[in-house]
């Protein structure tokens, strides 16, 4: 009868009481695991109840139990329990809090009458019901945001959709998205969004953010370096916080992570004190973890797209050059076309003469130093290139740093990478 009452309580997902032993062992709730989670007796016999928790909620659950033993009180928190069929069962667990009817028992001296009374108290708790409803609502919105981002292939598209979702779906009025720099030593501001500020206010805020990042100041830099999320309930009580907007009262800073590597940071602020809670934090962390994976995927796509565009432009250019009349004016017209498609490239058109003299016919984005390097190219290097292209093949060097010849060493010194 005692066990049956426990199961009845757990079946009502909106009103949950959990009974634990001093050693944190949940073996005596075997029937609960069988009936709710779908495991058979032999599968669950040697398992502790906590082993059924998914890894991302295990640490949180243990921390809350430890806090309970030390203080006899812990705030409501959510765990995910793994069902036999692979689904996740969401449970709202509560700490000892006599004034609003939510309890977390140790199981000692617990009578059936007391258990029934506490179940009634929990059932009457409107706060708990609202919390669960909000949790379900936020989870659905997070899933929708992720679904809209999955088909996207470029980082700007992903960040646009992410900021739109944070603002429109989740109702966060203002925030910023940072991504790690190439040197991986700090982050750069990629997206600043707000539904309550003017354009001039946003421009001023952007300058202030960039300066603070360059100086290594603020919680954004700290969260990037530690990889740990942070909620600031009252910015006026924080000495080290940099308030970008004067009306900011609270802030939430969440790292964008792939496993243990932090690849960016999302900051969200509110003009209300205590504007964020653990539910906000938990689900924004879920969102950032998903976004991190999609950003990495998009980087590979963008590299492939860029290379494809380069090769297509170079092939088109080579075909055009074969048909045009010789003359610097004609070549320069073609180079203008190249510069429109390969804006970050240095481009030169050279003619190799039989007399071992190489002439630069035209160039685009080429410094005088680079021109000099190609104008005095050695016979050996010239012959290597000629032998390649005479057979109709491209001469491609993906990583100049790995090449040992004088030509490539000199180009590398002038920041030519490939």
From TrEMBL:
Transmembrane segments: none annotated. SUPFAM superfamilies: GAF domain-like, PYP-like sensor domain (PAS domain). This is PAS domain-containing protein. Gene3D superfamilies: 3.30.450.40, PAS domain. InterPro entries: GAF, GAF-like_dom_sf, PAS, PAS-like_dom_sf. Residues 2-59 form the PAS domain. It holds the Pfam family GAF_2.
């Amino acid at each position: 009868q005692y066990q049956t009452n426990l199961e009845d309580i757990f079946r009502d997902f909106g009103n949950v009481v959990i009974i634990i032993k001093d050693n944190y062992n949940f073996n005596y709730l075997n029937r609960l695991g069988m009936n709710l989670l779908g495991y058979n007796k032999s599968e669950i016999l040697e398992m502790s109840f906590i082993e059924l928790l998914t890894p991302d909620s295990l640490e949180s659950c243990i921390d809350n139990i430890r806090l309970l033993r030390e203080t006899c009180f812990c705030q409501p928190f959510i765990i995910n329990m793994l069902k036999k069929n692979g689904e996740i069962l969401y449970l709202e667990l509560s700490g000892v809090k006599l004034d609003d009817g939510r309890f977390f028992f140790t199981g000692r001296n617990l009578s059936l009458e007391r258990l029934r009374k506490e179940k009634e108290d929990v059932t009457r708790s409107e706060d708990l019901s609202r919390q669960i409803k909000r949790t379900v609502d936020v989870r659905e919105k997070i899933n929708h945001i992720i679904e809209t981002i999955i088909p996207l292939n470029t980082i700007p598209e992903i960040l646009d959709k992410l900021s739109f979702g944070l603002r429109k779906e989740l109702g966060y009025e203002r925030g910023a998205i940072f991504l790690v720099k190439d040197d991986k030593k700090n982050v750069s501001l990629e997206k600043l969004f707000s539904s309550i500020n003017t354009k001039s206010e946003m421009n001023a805020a952007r300058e202030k953010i960039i300066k603070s990042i360059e100086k290594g100041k603020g919680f954004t830099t700290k969260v990037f370096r530690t990889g740990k999320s942070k909620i600031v309930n009252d910015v006026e009580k924080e000495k080290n916080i940099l308030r970008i907007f004067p009306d900011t009262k609270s802030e939430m800073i969440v790292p964008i992570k792939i496993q243990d590597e932090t690849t960016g940071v999302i900051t969200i602020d509110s003009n209300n004190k205590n504007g964020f809670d653990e539910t906000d934090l938990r689900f924004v962390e879920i969102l950032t973890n998903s976004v991190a994976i999609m950003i990495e995927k998009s980087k590979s796509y963008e590299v492939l797209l860029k290379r494809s565009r380069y090769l297509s432009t170079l092939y088109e250019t080579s075909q055009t050059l074969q048909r045009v009349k010789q003359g610097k004016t004609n070549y320069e017209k073609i180079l203008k076309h190249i510069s429109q498609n390969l804006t970050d490239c240095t481009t030169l058109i050279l003619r190799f003469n039989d007399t071992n003299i190489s002439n630069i016919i035209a160039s685009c984005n080429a410094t005088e130093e680079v021109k000099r390097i190609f104008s005095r190219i050695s016979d050996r290097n010239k012959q290597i290139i000629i032998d390649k292209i005479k057979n109709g093949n491209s001469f491609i060097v993906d990583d100049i740093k790995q090449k040992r010849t004088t030509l490539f060493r000199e180009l590398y010194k002038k920041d030519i990478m490939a």
